[in-house]
Amino acid sequence: MTEPTESTASARVSADAAPAQSAPGAAPARPAGTVDPRQPRTNAAITAAILLVGTYFALVGTSTAPALGLAGFAARALDPGFLILLIAAVLFAWSLVSARTQPLNALFRGLIGPRLAPPREWEDARPPRFAQGVGLVVVGVGLVLHLLGVPWALVIAGAAAFVAAFLNAAFGFCLGCELYLLLTRAGVLGRAAGGR
Hints:
about 200 residues, 3-stranded antiparallel beta sheet
C-alpha cells in the first residue's frame, strides 16, 4: 500500500480514535461514518475487472462503428459492452443508494474482511462514496451517448472509469476521493470531518 498523501491522511481516522472496545484484545469498534480502507480498494479491483471486460467488448462491438447512429436502438442497447458497463453503472448507483447492501461491499464484509487483521485506521466513508458517484457519472454519460448513437463514447467512458478504478486498486490512489477532498477544501462541498 502506498503512503497516504496529506490530502488522504485528512480523510482517515485512527483506530485509536474509535469508541472504547467491548473486550480486551478485541478489534476497535468502527467509528460511525467510516469504512475499512481495504474495502474500497477491493471493490475497485473487482470493478476494474468488470470495466476492463466491458470496455473490451465495447471496443470490439458496435460502439466503435462509424455507422453506430444508423443501428437501431435495440441493437445499441443489446451490445455486450453496453450491457457489461451497465452492470458497472448499477453497482456504482447501488453503492450511493444503499452502501450496506451493495454486493461488493457485502462480499467484503462477509467473506474478505473477516479473514483480514483489523484495520489500524478507518477511512471517512464520504470520499469513497463520492468516488462511486463520479464513476456513475462517467459510465452513465458513456451509456447515454452510446444509446444516442455517438461512436466511441462507450469505449472512452469505460476506459476512463477503468483507469480510475485500477489506480485505486493497484496503488491506493483514489481519483474521486482526491476530487472530493479538493472540492471540500474549496468550499464547494461540506467541510471534512478533520475540519481542514
